[in-house]
Amino acid sequence: MIKKMANRLGVLLLIAAIVTSTAWIGSASQAEAAGSQAYTWKNVVTGAGGGFIPGIIFNETEPNLIYTRTDIGGAYRWNPSDSSWIPLLDHIGWDEWGKTGVDALATDPVDPDRLYLAVGTYTNDWDPNNGYIMRSTDRGDTWQETELPFKVGGNMPGRSMGERLMIDPNKNNILYFGARSGNGLWKSIDYGATWSKVTSFPNPGNFVQDPSNPYTSDIMGLAWITFDPNSSSPGQATQTIYVGVADKNASVYRSTNGGSTWTAVPGQPTGFLPHHGVLSSDGNLYISYSNGIGPYDGEKGDVWKLNTSTGVWTNISPVPSSSTDNYFGYGGLAIDAQQPGTLMVAALNSWWPDTIIFRSTDSGATWTRIWDFDGYPNRKLRYTQDISAAPWLDWGANPQLPEITPKLGWMVGELKIDPHNSDRMMYGTGATIYGTNNLTDWDEDKKINISVMAKNLEEMAVNDLISPPVGAHLISAVGDVSGFKHDDLTVAPAKMLTNPNSTSSIDFAQLNPGFVARVGYADHAVNPNAKSISLSYDGGGNWFSPNAEPSATKGGGQIAVAADNTSLVWSTSDVGVYYSKTSGNSWTKSTGIPANAEVASDRVNKNKIYGVSAGIFYLSTDGGATFAQTTATGLPEEGALNFKALPGVEGDIWLAGGNVDGGTYGLWHSTNSGAAFTKLSNVQQADNIGFGKAAPGQSYLALYTSAKIDNVRGFFRSDDGGVSWLRINDNDHQYAFTGSAITGDPRIYGRVYVGTNGRGIVYGDVAGNPPVTPTPSTTPVPTVTPTPVPTTTPTPVPTATSTPVPTVTPTPVPTVTPTPVPTATATPTPGSGSFKVQLYNGGTAATANTLNPRIKLVNTSSSAISLANVKIRYYYTIDGDTAQSFWSDWSTVGSANVTSTFVKLSTPKTGADYYVEIGFTSAAGSVAAGQSIELQTRISKNDWSNYTQTGDYSFHSTATTYVDWNKSTGYLSGALQWGIEP
Questions:
Q1: Concatenated DSSP letters for 28-71?
Q2: Most-buried pick from 155, 545, 725, 955 (CB within 10 A)?
Q3: Distance between the two ends of the chain, CA-based, in angstroms?
Q4: SS3 content of the chain, % helix, strand, coil (to 5)
């Protein structure tokens, strides 16, 4: 995850050879605000986490003591009673947000109660604070900390290398830490309280991922530390220590005298970077190498074994770097402590068709893979995969072989076998933790059962939240995994929001809340026709991309929806503010408002749209076409701003923002559409504002904010329009940075939803009140909606070859044809019937290995039609009779509800010797009078040989949007309703 903090905090530089400890933190008391109210805080459940897992650490001596570290979401301890994770850093406050980036973790094998973290999120100026070593003697329930004289990079490149913080297994008061940024090796001899630089260590690393980018231009530094416990005895400092360094010429160093002197290990491989170094009890040191530090880069690599007794190095790569089949490098590495010759390694960056995990039971002499090609494009799998704990991990995809969904993962920089249980293995991915409890079945050529092992680990960076008055209680906008619609906060959603796959802003029409719009970032490099905006007409259940977006935008920014959804206003991240009054099918640049302005709609007057930038407030009274400055003064000219209009009251606006550096910071209120604002004197700082159901006996909606009031940072609620405030969180529930998103629930008094930067979405209810999650109201669906067009279709597979090696990393997505105004086309008049069929072909090349009919069924009758009784036929020539496959890539009624049957004509016709008959299950429901449904389909031969479309009966070579097409026939209960059979 990469998310830069909005606020710049003060910098405290401490450059010294020895660093001393600071005061106790955690549950320590702080000054309280004037008023407070006890709340119960929980995570909104996604079931998978949603973010990158760079480290999983098992305690070597105590079973079931397991920890995981995240890049921006803190650290967790395993709860064996219910196989969940317990968050350990929720007490981290606003000013210390960097401490939720955990770059290394160490659990003490001598005293399992001791736990250590190296924390700090960025080594560049995004994080103004130095790094810390946090230490606990109660497994992370409470903490002490020591500031380091340099920064730590929990969310920097190379974060899945490690572990770079290690405890001497013979003398546990001794710890070593491998620093980034050229700061070298550091040592503590007092259980992590003070630290000194190991001046004898010769190489602080020299590898830089990309010097042209401020995020990737830092020196990686040290990657991992490994002790040889057999080189000493309990109570005496371990003498032999290995350190991995990000240097392609000399990457492994060894000390044989307890760290006094160090030398590069003779004979070591060069040209790659060491990701993990694990010493087996049989004396073999195993190292996984890649030519990048990850987690996103790395295209070549090897696995090496050092016999520490003989000094002999052996390349044991499952796929050596010299092979054209090696396109990924190696990341996660694990040794079975119960069976020292058993080890596993993972491909670091095998995106296509999936990641690869390798296993050896003979110290790397031979390997088996978790999947193999079995007659391309088919694959033989050594696993089953269960994502029922988080069904959305299928990514809403319908891929083409050899890809399948769900994927095993990507960015697998961490993989561990339980040292106490050879059957348990866990590994981290870019979205969750997967694992198995029957790992040794692999060795008997049985399938292992992989499932999600991330219960209660919520790691999303949240950008925006809405809680409409009907339908789902919560819809979220998330960076890495786009967002979710939550009808039940305690249940993982069945699907994530897709297209775009990253969401920066979301809004709904207050007077028509079933209409929701969101904007984010489409990958135009992969799919030039993808859209960075998506619309829903059913409260977030189904999403469609309009036909257009502002010219040349890369997406992002903020969306505002007029109160009745007659206009959309999009403040893009790059090309300015645009408006649309055609449901996004065309966009015009707004005038009178600067680029990057924050925008929001009035929740009563459909014509009023508001904007703010650099201390100036703007008002549009024509749905966002033109803006004019208001006379408001005193607003922040610097810092992030968040403002919203109050539902139910025209012109009532609340604005939070500013920063300390700019000198203007707080909360403002306007009751006249932004003509003037009043600053609340009782709020020192505020970063967002949200509204919820009014308190009993009150008419004004409850206000919620993440703010500083009476010198205390926290979440606050006001029931009297901002006159007085109650702090509603406590010091154990601060969640670091919470400035992006907050909203109350309009149906449940006291409930508030808060977006965090790494701890997902948390929600609070008044303590003692029984949990309330009412059944969602039925969301009204408009009777007429614009024609939706999905942004993407799965990747077609090229003509079959022998086992291919991908030349690109992310899976390419084919171009999606935009929907222009159709050219007039002469079509025969069909016979009368209850519906008609419209069609165009997504691909119009004369020859292709995939047919791509896109079909719309329009109900022309006066009553609803049950889709279970409908059949549609597409006629074509097979051009070489062989088995075929059909896919419904997307449908208004859901792809799972579309059926197909291939039929060979007994007597070939002109342009047709086959047809595919498309039908629907009963779950597809019905299509109302005057309404329509759409489906996008693909047909391919199983050997991926080509069709010749030219001359196919149902093929339309010129249409680029839906046109009436009587060469595709439609039937109702077996009776022809539309078209002419060949």
A1: ---PPPS-B--EEEEEPP-SS-SS---EEEE-SSSTT-EEEE-S
A2: 155
A3: 55
A4: 5, 35, 60
Query: What tokens does 312 get?
Result: 């002999």
Distance CA 40, CA 768 (A): 8
Phi, psi (degrees; rounded to nearest 5) at 867: -70, -20
Cis peptide before 163 (omega within 30 of 0): yes
pTM, two decimals, is: 0.79
Percent residues over pLDDT 90 in the chain: 84
Q: Which of 168, 464, 480, 745 is catalytic?
A: 480
What tokens appear for 105 in the block?
């973790």
Catalytic residue (choose from 71, 507, 523, 765): 71
Residue 779 has pLDDT above 90, yes or no: no
Q: How far is CA 544 from the centre of its chain?
A: 20
The alpha helices in 492-626, defined as continuous H runs, are none
- In angstroms, how far is CA 310 from the centroid of its own chain? 46
Question: Is position 372 annotated as part of the catalytic site?
Answer: no
Q: Which of 962, 723, 951, 707 is nearest to 857 (CA)?
A: 962
CA angle 105, 490, 448 (to 5 degrees): 60
Query: Known catalytic residue: 480?
Result: yes
| In the predicted structure, residue 115 carries a pLDDT above the cut 90 | yes
Radius of gyration of the chain (CA): 30
How many Å apart are CA 280 and CA 336, to the nearest integer? 8
Structure tokens at 774: 């009412």
- pLDDT tens-place string over residues 859-877: 998 889 999 999 999 999 9
If you average pLDDT over residues 583-605, what whole number do you get?
97
